[in-house]
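Human: I'm a chemist; would you kindly supply sequence and structure tokens for a protein?

Assistant:
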Amino acid sequence: MNGEGSQLEHYPRYLGLDVGNRRVGVAVSDELGMTAQPVLTLTRRHNSREDLRSLARLCRRFAVVGIVVGNPVHISGEMSPQAVKTQAFAEELGKLTALPIHLWDERLTTREAHQILYEAGRARQKHREVVDQVAATLILQAFLDATVARTRR
């Protein structure tokens, strides 16, 4: 083999976040830019600056080019109090990392994440450990799917 064609093409990677008051679910896109993978659940601290720094380290570790943040608007599409908090957090993260922030509609994502865990046979009591990661993965995957669909038109 002469080595030609043996390297995989790398696409921009994104970090996906499901931001809550107590936890932040984190996912990252694969190197082909096709699938979202769960990474971890960050337990929020009283000092949100520490949370922001932890997420900035993950951005560097995975060499991401942007951050997709679930935007928890009401079912009606109106801003919720949590959406206001999430958008402020996302704005601060964008300033700290100098990366673009993509707010993504996350309506019903947590419910879908619980359903996936239930169908996978995970006990309801054990959902808390990973539900935020699953929600972040769903948010990021929806963003990736929409981005791929736009580029193929």
In short: The chain has one domain: 13-152.
